[in-house]
Amino acid sequence: MKKNHNLTLFRPLLVLLFLFFLNFISAQGPTYTAKQPSNFWKNVQFGGGIGLNFSSGYTDIFLAPSAIYNFNPTVALGAGLNLNYVSSNNYYSSVVYGISTIVLINPIPEIQFSVGLNESRVNYQEEGFSNYSEDYWDTSLILGAGYRTGNVTIGIGYNVLQNDRYDTEPFVPFVRAYF
Fold it and tell me: Where are the domains of the chain?
């Protein structure tokens, strides 16, 4: 039986070529990198407002949790909830609840401008002789400016959608804190 010399010479060369192309093909495949942890929660701050006012025959309780996302040191966007209960003994009571959004702009660290949109449901009831009640939706768009120190901003806003029908003031003072 005659050995094929050409096959004996080319066998190692074919194996080397096969290994070379196999390595080349696997090098062109997808590369996997370790998944980086999300920075989302590092940019989120929680805060809001709490208010309590008690006097003889008068109660006012306010709760407004909120959260903001800081896109950068200058711009933040947030959302929140609000609940307000007011009662004046033998005169009226009111429950107000709703949602809000806010955009915060800090051109310099000490100054903060804000645009807030609030949608609230108002349940108002007079007591005593009239027994008058009213339920309605109230929308407010508040443009504000304040002085910021650390996590706290003190300022004033103006409700551009203020409605004279409900005897409210268009100017809204605020204290805002996010941690």
Answer: 43-178
What is the per-residue pLDDT for 130? 78
What is the CATH architecture of 43-178? Beta Barrel (2.40)
Residue with tokens 């025959």: 57
Find residue 90's DSSP bridge partners. Answer: none
List the chain residues with pLDDT less than 70: 1-34, 164-168
CA dihedral defined by 163, 52, 155, 171, rounded to 10 degrees? 20
Q: What does the DSSP 8-state code read for residue 166?
A: G
- Alpha carbon distance 162, 140 (integer Å): 7
Q: Which residue type does 65 have?
A: P
Three-class secondary structure assignment of 55-108: ECCEEEEEEEEEEEEECCCCEEEEEEEEEEEEEECCCEEEEEEEEEEEEEEEEE
The dihedral of CA 92, 97, 101, 107: what is its sign? positive
- Report residue 15 as tokens: 């194996």
Question: From CA 179, how far away is CA 176, in angstroms rounded?
Answer: 10
Distance CA 125, CA 102 (A): 30
What are the pLDDT digits (tens) for 134-144? 999 999 999 99
